[in-house]
Amino acid sequence: MLAFILRRLMQSIGVLFAMSLLVFIGVYAIGNPVDILVNPNADQQDIARAIAELGLDQPLHLQYWQFLSNALSGDLGRSFSTGIPALELIFQRMPATLELAAVSMLIAIALGIPLGLYAGLRPSSRLSKAIMAGSILGFSLPTFWVGLMLIMVFSVWLGWLPPTGRGDTVELFGVPVSFLTLDGWSHLLMPATNLALFNLALLVRLTRAGTREVMLQDYIRFARAKGLSDGRIVGVHVLKNILIPIVTIVGLEFGSVIAFAVVTESIFAWPGMGKLLIDSINQLDRPVIVAYVLLIVLMFVLINLVVDVLYSLLDPRIRLADAGGAR
Amino acid sequence: MSTPPPALPAIVEASPLRRFAAEFAASRVALGAAVLLAAILFAALFAPLLSPQDPYDLATLDIMDSKLEPGARGAAGARFLLGTDEQGRDLLSAILHGLRISLGVGVMATLVAMAFGTLTGLASAWFGGRFDALLMRIVDLQLSFPAILVALVLLAVLGQGVDKVVLALVIVQWAYYARTVRGSALAERNREYIEAARCLALPAWRIVLRHLLPNCLPPLIVIATVQVAHAIALEATLSFLGLGMPITSPSLGLLIANGYTQLLSGKYWISFFPGIALVLTIVAINLVGDQLRDVLNPRLSR
Fold first, then answer.
1. Nearest by CB to B237, which of A142, A277, A289?
2. What is the pTM of this model?
3. Could you tell me the CA-to-CA distances from A6 to A39, B50, B76 in Å, in that order?
4. Which of A10, A79, A292, A299 is 20 to 30 A from A49 in CA distance terms?
5. Which of B102, B139, B157 to mutate to test the interface with A (most CBs of A within 10 A)?
6. How many distinct structural domains can be found in chain B?
7. Quick check: ipTM above 0.85?
8. What is the pLDDT of residue A32?
């Protein structure tokens, strides 16, 4: 077991290293940041000074070495446009994104599991068919367009919810959050729903498929024969057994929710790290792009590692297969 | 007295294609989606002939027609069925042309990704060993990141352009094909017909391309269909964010982005109708893909 975890850990570090190299080369080797950062009317001396200040006159491999050793000590460079350290900039924006992602995950779970359960228990009812048709739409509708339509209906036509921004925030353990104020909720609701749609559809399908499978098992028939109430059968015996794959998916999907937040944040001008990424791309603010990508890669590698280890705890076959089946 | 022989009941063995068509049409929803998809493809192919106006010929635009409501008449008396955008461009024409660009990019990217992914998948299964292990590691690595993120970062690095969008979509998608093809090729590789082909001393490329590949096709077709929809949605998202298609190739995503600024002042149609076109396309493709999967999956039909 320990050997398995260590091997996976080494792989993860290898992935991080490879990604840092790819990202660095991709972002630094293309285009000339000087054109964007220095006033076009500046004279040669000013330009040369700016280049030296940003370290852009060094050979590429030295820049990378510098970048890597700095990165390991938590310094991913300063934003070209604001001069603030890139990591600090991202950490400032991170709570907003995490809040949005968490609320959207909660919406997806709170609606998706009951709807999926219902569709799985009564597969031929009309409501179930409507739910399943809705879930196809949830997969097919492009997120950004749904976001626009939400703004159109709830902000422009009905005037119920504000179209953009984050609203009033309250400090919670030194971190600004929106979900404790009414104004914050009114700003949070639309983007979170928008972001939740895909996972809502996914959870409905997963729960339905799991429910239909479990309902055919002998232990359900046995529970019936024992005279247990329907509520107890569904609440305890069914739910418990379909929850394992659902929990895994929810864990894995959290990463993609944060990635997809890039789109939602851009539409609703939600001041999270996704919007920061888009703004940085448009300004060619490379240190911020690199820092964001590395942070996201780190997050995904960690999530995958945790899921793999959890799986191998649950199912020893995976561990053995990874070791070549020799032991 | 001879009577003409009674017409024989048709016991002729149905051709595979006909049987496939019959099975496909068994679902009315899928049939409707296929018809819709055909109509969309037709509209996209013949957009220049069908659209009432050439939306990118500045001479035909009149700024007085700017932001007209759907169904309104322009200064020159022409009726704009779906309204106009801020430059006075007929939205219907813009959508037809946009559809052409979006579909073109989606299909193109899918074809290239399929070709590349299929070849690597076949090679991976055929050669096995370290080559296979390395390739599958790369595939695993890539599939562990969401497509939108990979594409965003790629385009941030590459910049705008039709070729760059296609390249980004190919890079995002090839891994699905490689993994699927490798899976079915591994299963097929040990079958008797491959062994027979080997006994005939056929060259490896011939065995792989003429014997192995055709038997790996059904799952590939299903994935390719669904991936076209993904590619179109992804391209639209990237273009909406301003990182995808250049302004000279206004795909549906760019049209929607154009209308975004007008949305808050209540001029919904500039974003709404291109979005509907996009949604109809994606839903139709997905429904057709679903049915293809059911029909082509031998485990479900028998």
1. A142
2. 0.82
3. 50, 62, 74
4. A292
5. B157
6. 1
7. no
8. 59
